[in-house]
Design brief:
The protein has 1 helix and 6 strands. It is α+β, with helices and mostly antiparallel strands.
Length: 123
């Protein structure tokens, strides 16, 4: 294979990868909404809804039909969480952590945690 053919194959692969990344970014941007609010979250205990005193308030950043992100002073202890959204009576949604990264905020360093909803939980 000649250098020109290798170059053409390489640029074709990069072009396809760029298009795929753009499609994912567009899909995500269309579905996310600012959700700057305080909500409650807790780690699940053996897949069960934790007691009320296990929930802590966190600052949510954005929301989609598939998940949300929030800020917290530390990364969650477990990968399975339950959110109590809204006001009483809360809407309880189970979620799994899909990523966490440190972020600088006006209040100092925090963890930005991204979660995917896995189902609704009834109390």
């Amino acid at each position: 294979m000649t250098n020109s053919a290798n170059d053409a194959d390489f640029f074709t692969a990069v072009h396809h990868l760029t298009l795929q990344q753009a499609a994912v970014a567009e899909l995500r941007d269309d579905l996310r909404h600012d959700f700057a609010s305080r909500q409650r979250v807790a780690c699940t205990i053996d897949g069960q809804l934790p007691p009320d005193d296990e929930f802590v308030e966190v600052w949510c950043c954005d929301l989609s039909s598939r998940g949300l992100s929030y800020l917290a002073p530390q990364s969650p202890a477990g990968g399975s969480l339950v959110f109590a959204l809204g006001t009483p009576p809360y809407t309880y949604l189970q979620a799994e952590v899909v990523h966490s990264e440190q972020a600088e905020t006006p209040e100092g360093p925090q963890w930005r945690i991204g979660c995917r909803f896995t189902g609704r939980v009834k109390r």
